[in-house]
């Protein structure tokens, strides 16, 4: 089962998939940062990896949360138990979506 989860996470990194993102505070690693869910974390191997992230839609009642455009974030932490694939810093989340939304659908791709 763990091998299947790892293979799915690896495929997601290569193909770029639509997932959810949430926001969390600054961790003194810059402003455009993110934490990875357990499905992406891979025992810390993903730490330091850069991703392009784009908001593509709503997950709740906040209408039209996406601001357009894409950002580049660096994975600097693990987010155990996150229901989202990426937990973006406040600055990163606000660059692609209305912060009031709290969660949005994203497309992301490893650089």
Description:
Keywords: Signal. Residues 1-23 form the signal peptide. The chain has 111 residues and is α/β, with parallel strands linked by helices. It has one domain (2-110): Barwin-like endoglucanases (Beta Barrel). The chain is built from three helices and six strands; from the N terminus they run H-E-E-H-E-E-E-H-E. It has helices at residues 2-15, 38-41, 90-96; strands spanning 17-24, 33-37, 50-58, 70-79, 86-89, 104-110. The protein has a six-stranded mixed β-barrel with strand order 1-5-2-4-3-6. The chain is globular and about 35 Å long. The termini are far apart. 30% of the residues are buried. Residues 1-11 have low confidence and may be disordered.
The CA-CA distance between the termini, in Å, is 27 Å
Estimated helix fraction = 10-25%
Number of domains: 1
- Tally of individual helices: 3
Which second-level CATH architecture applies? Answer: Beta Barrel
What are the defining features of this structure?
single chain; 111 residues; alpha/beta; Barwin-like endoglucanases; six-stranded mixed barrel; 6 strands; globular; disordered N terminus
């Amino acid at each position: 089962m763990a091998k299947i989860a790892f293979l799915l996470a690896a495929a997601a990194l290569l193909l770029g998939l639509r997932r959810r993102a949430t926001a969390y505070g600054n961790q003194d690693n810059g402003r455009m940062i993110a934490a990875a869910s357990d499905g992406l974390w891979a025992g810390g191997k993903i730490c330091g990896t850069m991703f392009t992230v784009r908001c593509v839609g709503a997950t709740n009642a906040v209408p039209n949360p996406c601001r357009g455009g894409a950002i580049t974030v660096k994975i600097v932490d693990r987010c155990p138990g996150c229901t989202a694939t990426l937990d973006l810093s406040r600055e990163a989340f606000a660059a692609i979506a209305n912060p009031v939304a709290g969660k949005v659908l994203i497309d992301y791709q490893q650089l």
